[in-house]
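Question (not urgent): is this output format expected?
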Amino acid sequence: MPRMLFANMPVKDITATRAFFAELGFEFNDVFSDENCVSMVISEQATVMFLSESRFKDFISDSITDTTQSREVLMCVSADSRDEVDSLVDSAIAAGGSPWMEPQDHGFMYGRAFRDLDSHVWEVMWMDPSAVTPDSAE
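Got this back:
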């Protein structure tokens, strides 16, 4: 059975974060969302838990990374096409995010990235499924 993944990320404004990712087409699990947390569904096995900074501090014994200065993680979500990569990143920038790094084009794989409202980096990647064969995984 595959393991579930819960990525927990601190944010300054829960309402703004939810609106930002809703604008990008993401869905939320309201059972696990409240004024201090929003649960964003990536897939049946992956969820991002955006926690207010004060709530996030309840789970750590050190400090929150200053994402305007350094990276604590690179989140990467898949897209079904190169056009969807561009559409999602362009939508993120239009919704208040900012571009991050230059696009990466390897022919069979294409990706771009943006920073969300709290400067967390989100990569969006498409890979040609025909380029991944059982032999290429060896």
